[in-house]
Please model this.
Amino acid sequence: MKNFIKLDTQNTSLVFFVAEDGRFSVVHYGKKVLGDNFLSESALEILNANSAVWNFSASSDDLYGQPTIVSSVGDGNAMEQLLRVENEDGSFVNRFVYDSHEFIEGGVTFDGLPGARKPLKTLVIRFVDEFAKLTLEQFYSVFENCDVIAVNQKITYTGDKSVKLNRMMSLQLDLFGTEYDCVSFHGAWCRERFRKETHISSGKFQVQSLSGTSSAMTNPFFILKDCYSGKNFAFNFVYTGNHSEIVESHFSEGNTRVLVGINDACFEWTLNNSESFVTPQAIMVCADNEKEITAQMHKFVINQIVDPYFAHKNRPVLVNNWEGTAFDFNAEKLVGIAKKAVEIGAELFVLDDGWFGKRDSDRCSLGDWFDNVEKLDGGLKNVADKIRALGLDFGIWVEPEMINEDSELFRSHPEYAMAVPGREPIRKRNQLMLDLVNPEVQQYLIDEIGDVIERSGAVYVKWDSNRFMSDMYSPTLNNMGEYYHKYILGLYRIIDALKKRFPTVLFESCASGGARFDLGLLYYMPQTWCSDMTEPWHRVHIQEGTLYGYPQSAIGAHVTAWSNNTIENRFNVVSLGAFGYELDLTKCSDEEIAIMKKQIEYYKKHRELLQFGQYVLLDSVFDDRKTSSWAIFGEDKSEAMVFIGETVELWNTATTKWNFTGFDDNAIYEMEVRSHFNVDEKFAYKGEVSGSVLNNCDLSFGNLFTQEQRSGLFTTNLTTRLIYFKKKA
Ligand code: GLA
Model:
């Protein structure tokens, strides 16, 4: 059965069929199908390789009607296309015919683009449109102990004129059937990645960003659930710019098409003779349910996306001064906070915005990456040294991609700013963006930011980006249709150069909170500030939404003073991430300092579990039960941390019911509720309980919250506990 191409992951198979006449179709994507010669002719007849096409005599119009992985304009199928090309003859018509395929060991790397690391093997499939002089290569990579498949495309023009790509997506997958639910993640500043569910049965649903960044509005990660088979598919995109995820159900074809790639809005890429365009990588996975999708995604991000140096490395407990001081600090103030940071047991001090140029507000100095010597009592190195002398590591905030018009940089290089000549640009947070398409600007940032890291000795860099694009133009480009993508390539080039120069520096990306939570940046920067929203009830939504597709070690999560909820509840909620405090510790009472000290002790004791254990969502905050719970399991379920949180609107309401899963049914666990400073120790109970009880019974946790309810502490909007379970030997 040489006409079948089967690509296996650990538990799934993706199977294609190539007919004698070159028709190419998707036969199966789902659980693993065993064997190599697994498909007989009769099997083929009963599969959805579109029996319609095989059983009825195909007219030329039908040729491309079956579920496939390549679609173009004018190929006989009227759904959304993988690619759109303006050919050298001015036509938009393409017909790609299967040419050949091969399996290669490992993968293919493409310069300048992030991509999944350590592929085991890669299936390369070649399609050719001879008439248009175009070759399309598709790459499908698989990984050890993982079900994710990474996909990208390379298109090459072999003529001697030129063609224009008007759309070039990274992944197409046609799925059988037309009833699907799409779970996607949407939001805004302080409300990132809220779960939304949309039923798709006819027509097109699109998740997209047009802001030039991956955005807080829509994350490229989404789940697609087959309403009939129950299969869950998930997709993501290893990219930081404009993206487009299209799901189109077509009743007449009986299929649902999925496309993932660069958004084609304002995209136009010219290919001259022998030139190629390589798309960023998209990824896909198929699993039984959402929990399994999440497990696959977490494993994949840690092992295939994050820099291996940091992938399994404990993240430091940090103290950041931003929420505590904003721009209003001097060296003495910073050292004062740092002393308290030592007292509570933090490991890293991060100096946020306001240390450079003459920046005392957000109106000036972005672009001027020289020290504010006055504010820093001599300079960055001086402050950093003083902080290091206390026993803390030092970290620094930068916002490299931006420029204020009130800056030395703008005065000497106005052409570095992203603006259309002669047109008044739009300012956001009083700033413009830098034209990262311009190689001179890229080099300026590589040098300047490199210098900041060097002279401060920072071991951690928070890379912020506080606006999105509005005035895309570069004097260095002939075709502005290339702008968005070339900006992102410029950004990757800068970060890559800095990463190579400072391989052990931990970078955390940030974009007005969590507006760039994407696999492209996570490839370079192992963690992302999840949101500026730190109030616990809101935060639970944002973290749960993020955790569907990204592991807790990638999530920057801090306790701040921005809430009237207790410091214990604030801690419990953010304890599952790369954790820290962001408040003015010099203003905290002795009691608060003592509480934070205990919290850090607790966090450090369980850090490995909290940052790298297997997260399992138990009870979604997005349903209407007013409860939220999650568990993080250690290897072999030998230990677990469970978070439970509930809101109660009425005093003396009925007890909440908790349902757990994932414990070892045959084990006995020692259980310990983390004690809270304001709650009687008798409620911080310890005990033994079997995994079977935990997995199978309704749990109420008795009077765990009673004291808080009675004392009025329940007036805050979320009351929480952490419960630690350890398997008995
Ligand atoms: C953004 C970030 C904050 C902080 C400020 C500094 O809003 O999300 O964490 O760094 O910028 O200006």
